[in-house]
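Marked as duplicate of an earlier ticket. Keeping the data here for the record.
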Amino acid sequence: MKKDRQTIFDSNVIEFVTVAAEFCKFIEQAEGRKRADFVDTALKLLPLLYLKAELLPPCEEAGDEPPETFVTEETYEVVRMTLAAVMGSRDDYLDVFVDDMKYSDRPIARTVSEDLADIYQDIKDFVFVFRLGLNETMNDALAICRENFRLYWGQKLVNTLRALHDAKYGSLPQEEEAEN
């Protein structure tokens, strides 16, 4: 257990926890923000979250039970709908990194709101467990978050960055410019 204790208090883990908590706060305070402001902040915060996740040290689950989760279906849906309202007409984007794409003759649409809600769910559950301060569950939450980054939300994050970049710098129709 000593090695687990060292891992969860590694400087890269502490930095990730800090950025993860900031990301959660940003998502939770999105309601009512102007899209341009939201996109601008997200374009700065998401690459930092990715970098800090990439620097996490290796660790393995130690407990028999998975850590407690915080984000309920209702919370997830509120976050998703709030983000969809903020993103408005710029919520949808085409995803080219979907396995089904190679079998499809049509583009596959995704939404920034759903991808950010998915990322939020994993990150918020991780931050919630870390706040409990129990070493074994903190270690397990770290291992799960790191694995989910590798398998799921890391790719969603970079895909969302592409869509957010386009929302900020892409060409907008005249009526959309007024929405910003």
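See parent ticket for discussion. The first strand starts at residue 92 and ends at 95.
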